[in-house]
Amino acid sequence: MTNTLTDTTALTPAARAANLTRRDFPAGFVFGVATSSYQIEGAAQEDGRSPSIWDVFCAQPGRISDGSSGAVACDHYHRWEQDLDLIAALGVDAYRFSVAWPRVIPAGRGPVNPAGLDFYERLTDGLLARGVQPHVTLYHWDLPATLQDQGGWTNRDTAYAFAEYAAAVAGRLGNRVVSYATLNEPWCSSVLSYEIGEHAPGTRDRAAALSAAHHLMLGHGLAMPEIRRHAPQSQAGIVLNLGPQESASDHPEDIRAARHADGRLNRWFLDPLLRGEYPADTWEDVVADAPPVQDGDLRLIAAPMDFLGVNYYSRGVIGAQGGVMPEGASVTDMGWEIHPQGLTDLMLRLKADYPALPPIYITENGAAFADERSGDRVHDPRRTEFISTHLSALLDATQAGVDVRGYFAWSLMDNFEWAHGYQKRFGLVYVDYATQERLLKDSALWYQAFLK
Ligand code: FCB
User: Fold this and answer.
1) Which residue has the CA at smallest separation from atom 9 of ligand 1?
2) The ligand 1 atom nearest the CA atom of 36
3) What are the strands, taking DSSP E only, across 192-292?
4) For the segment 382-404, what is each residue's pLDDT rounded down to a tens digit?
5) What is the pTM of this model?
6) Among candidates 387, 298, 371, 281, which has minimal Cα distance to 338?
């Protein structure tokens, strides 16, 4: 029997999405918000924290579009209690944050700084006290600068240093943390950082990027057993940035370029983790700069995970000359195409292509828009539409049998958006950087109502 008031099949995708509530999702599905250490914490020189590669990068003229840095950011290091209250007020189940390696092991390797771990312990316990699940990412790009002086991720030793750091964090926080992700988006910390040069350390060298990517993956593989040893009840996995890379046309050169783009962005990370091998076609494409893989590395990298974290923002439409924007596409303030269907497509593809696929969390999804404050309100209907249509697309994937366990909106609040500084606002919560005032945007109010 169809009740005309609740039959949503006749609605436009946006209207159908706006009517969603958490009850449409499987029981136990986790909803959260996400941030990362360098983007929100500030307090760059406090309690024994050493500089990270981002402090160094931000100090180089021309690297950050507004000349800013994360030295103060959202001042979350001092305002954490009020921020946790805000998270609880949103009504989310979970909060994903990252730990700053330079706070925990300031020299990169060697002595642990207890004051650094104290901060993350306060956060973890503060979340638990508010009934919010802590989800920790160990590496969201803030490598101790001293390690970059020795080659950073192009140096194999960094993978071993990372495993020691992972052991220190998991040793302190233990089973209180619901999930540990080793790395956030190794594509960004290798290709974007060492080949494209847009992120720290800002080099432009494909061989360096492929070496960095391999050592990041090795670091993941070495850290997993440390997490398991110190936090046997926590879930352990990794977070990748993934997106369909579609061919701009049927032309064989476009198809080939799209396949290469898919290999570099998606399969280069998925295949080692879930099949224990690098993708042969992409390896051929880059063979002159192929990374130094030692015996046993891939076995470590492919050890089973409890979850795969997926960050989804957009798809790529690829022609022989590079990425193209489909005609009539709507885009965010980052210039990224808004394409919710890509999230469904990506989920279905992961399930079809990877028999070893563990349960998935969407660990980031969101959009930057040029928000403006009007009085105490921030009207951001496009963000609400972005999030609700992506949730709807995700629901389609779960209904098609993909095992998705949760969704984290990026981001809790406006923050330091890397090379774009403070000019791109991704928050559900607006931050007035002059006063550090936080204001719930309309999208935050929508999420709150969705979660009720
Ligand atoms: C992702 C990053 C995150 C944020 C969003 C917009 O690539 O993980 O820190 O910058 O993009």
Assistant:
1) 36
2) 9
3) 235-241, 245-247
4) 999 999 999 999 999 999 999 99
5) 0.97
6) 387
